[in-house]
């Protein structure tokens, strides 16, 4: 079209030049010119003429060539018909122009007209005829059917049912595609090299010829992904505590959107295709490796990503520290235990060793040394959820006092149990010896499983006193030793407390700590006791008689009913089964004896002989004092309070000699008596007065 217009504009100039030529050789040369464009576009089926005109010579011979092939030959003006190759299509005009009737596509060609007149030369003009059809029914197709990112290429091509294309243009989202490193524009197609996701979009082909213009579109989707998945837990934490809730999400770019699949512990988790896995109230069993697989269901492309989920639980309770002896009571083993939990707590004694530690249960064995004695050592228990600690202090055995308890077994043997308990950490092991030889468990001697108690069994009380016993408490940090000298049945202190009316008395007594006692006889001298309902059976005795029997554990008793107008004497006799010990001091209750009421009345009455009386009185007082002195010099066995006080402050390794201080002569332990010592009193029971025994310990 454009060029037809251009030609039209040039035509006057062209004609001018042609005319000037014709005037120059008007009678001597044949001049041929085109009467229209030499470049002709025609639509198929139309009538088109390649028009020429000539001058300078009449009736020249005309020959039209299609390319090099002559198709029409005629001499203008001759009566002979023209020689035409294809009469259906071609016709020659009187003035030499060539007309195409219903021009077919096959007529497109270069045409040359050659005119000759003998003697007047030859003239030639070239024409180009292009025959077009309208473009119709354009379709686009793609090769291959699906485009995947990363493949080598894909091709878009058009096909038309009909029409001749003079020009094709490809566009991608409105921009023209030109051959480049990415595109290859070919005849009827365009090739996209190494397609990627950015090549997704609308492709347009625009086809033109001089007679019409057609566009066709195609939407192309490049399949891609999954890309590298992003796997994360929310909330984001390095670990989760039992019972917390979290969600795992796994996503990646891709088209179509990839689907997710979760795997844990070798099993695929159900209902998790969305890529979000909600975990509520997590258990430690849910900790571990989670793998997410993302699949592009169209391309079957898949990607995996894994993460480790830490779910922790603190061990129950608190760490427990202890110290034990190890390697035969030579080394110290510090122990720290806080087991359970996930993961196990890391335990260490940083003050003792900063290189070794243990999980859940940690033992550290060290040689015992003085600087460990009394040192408080902390076990650091480190768990991701909680840090905790416990303390332990190793202590060598402390000074202690042995205790002695006496019972009678079913065979009637006296059983003396000696306890040696020394505060120590680790617990002290007690070894026992009798004199210089070690005591082994057997029939006579029994050592408790924790070694702190030695039981001695014997019928014969005197056997208990032949040897000193020694207990040695030992742990890796030290030793404490005590000697125990058993003592016969004895009373160290006794008192008597009457009630207000003087009808009931409470007798209390104490026993030295190492005394072997299985029971007490409560003895009385004086008138008989009144019976409860006052039916009096009065009688007097000047001999002590046993009125109650008390077990070895008893330290007090009540005696009733007394006549406040009469005088009674009481004493307590300690017993080791058949063997009696020294009686306690005698406690008297009742009106005075030495200075009777009538005597005092006489003093008041006889004033004249008061001087004499005073003398007498002085003499009496002297006598009394003398008597008392004698009495106190006669040392009783055992010594009372002084002993008790001495024992409580005792710290030297031989406490027994304090207990022997007051012993005048060993009592006859073998004097047999028929009264069984171990009988609880058969006297009527009554509600005793408030205990007054505390007064004796002051
Ligand atoms: C072309 O020429 C033929 C013969 O002269 C005539 O019958 C026909 O109608 C013409 N066609 C057109 C489109 O003018
Ligand atoms: C030549 O002849 C044809 C048909 O006779 C006519 O249409 C055309 O105009 C002529 N051309 C010239 C240049 O005279
Ligand atoms: C017509 O001639 C031109 C040059 O004049 C040439 O380029 C073209 O190929 C020719 N066309 C045909 C169909 O022979
Ligand atoms: C796609 O286009 C975006 C934006 O222009 C670019 O950042 C990205 O690198 C391109 N992707 C590819 C695969 O070329
Ligand atoms: C997971 O929890 C979120 C919010 O906590 C909820 O929106 C989502 O639907 C849950 N997903 C599943 C699979 O239960
Ligand atoms: C811990 O180890 C370092 C180096 O081994 C040492 O110098 C330091 O005394 C140790 N601390 C304790 C408390 O043992
Ligand atoms: C520590 O000692 C205790 C008692 O002997 C034992 O039960 C425990 O297994 C020991 N712990 C380690 C870690 O050896
Ligand atoms: C252990 O001892 C340290 C100081 O020695 C003290 O701060 C800490 O509270 C103690 N821990 C326990 C559990 O008693
Ligand atoms: C008790 O033992 C002593 C000393 O071994 C002995 O002299 C005495 O005869 C024994 N008494 C009895 C009743 O066996
Ligand atoms: C028991 O020890 C005391 C004091 O050390 C001593 O006097 C006594 O002789 C010892 N008794 C025996 C039987 O060794
Ligand atoms: C009172 O004495 C009588 C005879 O001595 C006796 O039978 C009775 O049981 C006594 N009553 C009480 C309450 O002791
Ligand atoms: C004791 O003697 C007084 C007077 O001497 C008398 O009143 C009282 O009843 C007597 N008590 C008893 C229990 O006999």
TrEMBL record:
PROSITE patterns: FN3, IG_LIKE
Signal peptide, first to last residue: 1-28
Location of the region described as Disordered in the Swiss-Prot/TrEMBL record: 648-687
Transmembrane segments: 599-626
Residue ranges constituting the Ig-like domain according to the UniProt record: 229-308, 402-487
Short name of one Pfam family: Ig_3
InterPro entries assigned to the protein according to its UniProt record, in alphabetical order: CEA_cell_adhesion (IPR050831), FN3_dom (IPR003961), FN3_sf (IPR036116), Ig-like_dom (IPR007110), Ig-like_dom_sf (IPR036179), Ig-like_fold (IPR013783), Ig_I-set (IPR013098), Ig_sub (IPR003599)
Entry annotated with the keyword Transmembrane helix: yes
Domain Fibronectin type-III: 485-594
Gene3D superfamilies named among the record's database cross-references: Immunoglobulins
Key words of the record: Glycoprotein, Immunoglobulin domain, Membrane, Repeat, Signal, Transmembrane, Transmembrane helix
This protein's name: V-set and immunoglobulin domain containing 10 like
Organism: Seriola lalandi dorsalis
